[in-house]
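pasting for ref
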Amino acid sequence: MDKVRKALLYCRVSGKKQTKDGSGLSSQEHRCRQYAEAKGYKVEEVFPDDVSGGGDFMLRKGMVALLAYMDARPHENFVVIFDDLKRYSRDVEFHMRLRRIMQERGAIRECLNFNFEESPEGKFKEVISVAASELEREQMGRQNKQKSIARVEQGFCVRSVPPIGLKYKKAEGGGKVLVHDEPLASIIREALEGYASGRFQGQAEVKRFLEAQPEFPKNFPDGTIRQQRVRNMLEQILYAGYIAAPAWGISMREAKHEGIISKETYWRIQERLKGRPAMPARKDADADFPLRGAVACSSCGYALTGGWSRGKYKHYAYYRCHHHGCPEKGKGVPVARLEESVDTVLKSLRPSMPYAAMIKAMFAKAWSTQTKRLEQVAKSYANRVHEIEREIGKTLDRMLEVSSPRALNAFEQRLDALEQEKLIAAEKAAAKPAKPGKFEELFELSMGFLTNPYKVWKNGDPDARKLVLRLAFDGPLAYTRETACLNSEKSSVFKLLEDTCMPDCKMVLQERIELSTSPLPRECSTPELLQPGAVLAAGCRVGQTGPRLRTARCMP
């Protein structure tokens, strides 16, 4: 009785997407099993692959596993079955290498759509068939590349997987275009604009913000994301409505999709990335020591750090200066004492409500004026776009007159800068006035903080508390341990509120505030000022007669 031959099945599709969306692997396996059953073979193992058939076959996991399986059983002469010659190999050079490797292992190749022969004619037919497959593969690759380049030049993204916050949608004229994927787009917008504005001082704070969002996809089971993902998001040009393909020689240009952030915000982010990196805020700085990094030692100017000291019965929290050479080094300040001083300073920043109403009226008028000016500003930017286009034309004309590679490189850099400026100017030229009611919405949120920053500090989350300190003060607060004095340089916003708040009114004369030259006696008719020896603003004393007094704002 003849021994039953053992068969190994090899199935391959060209990519992982076909594995998920199609049924190519299962269909190939089904046909190969039918063939093996008809031939009387026993199928021992199936080896699938989901990579291209071109190039080195040792980069295909399925093929590597098939060869390793045969090497582990050197005394077996397997039959290797595959559906089509294109599934086996589409590269002449590596096909011939794979053919020799199979012969060395005593394997017999059988294909459902091709008959292998060991004659010279059979070998020639095999090589011609593989060469035709290689030609077809390279032609398809060239055609796909040409189409992709054309799409990118038109402003469309051709990435197989779009970045987080964007997704593909079928376009009216055919193909696909990127659109916002909510709520991820809003989360990313807040993160990027926060980094551009300085709300997030470093990439570590952006990372923690994203990790705190339940909807944002995480890299690891513990709810964290890779730091490289944050960097990639900050540098992603698609978020700004740009597109580029340097590998294909396509420079940055306007994309067809709407950006998540403005182009001006994107370039502010790039400037921050090029600058000196900020020291990342400590992740544990909020739980027990919220002032760590926000308060500096008055002696040396270095930030205080926080830590626990072990007592006889319990631990105590202290802020300390650890700067070498500082006379206050190692001397602790109780957490409650320092936080009480900060609370006092924040409470003093609260203006009275009548002045808040006046400030609202002032800002409403400024908002209205700025809205009216927006059309003029848009026209000026539109004119700037035309100027840049003329300058680009002149630069191109000058490029045709030079032949030096160094000069051409300088002109190319100049063109890139002009194109970047043109895109930003065009974006500002297309800006539209804010919708009615936008001012009230934004002002109420802002004034809620300005009128009572202490409330936000006391009830806000750790990120909100850090934001309060950054907005309320221009720099770290300087604390003197001996006097418990906390010196602070208030931000320009709160300085403005202080200057706007008027002191109590007094009584002055209707005439100009200067010494009187009249020899006639004057009489003061104000009971509050009838005090012996009281001096009035115009130089008259109590008991003198003169014109009636009026109220006015006192000068400091």
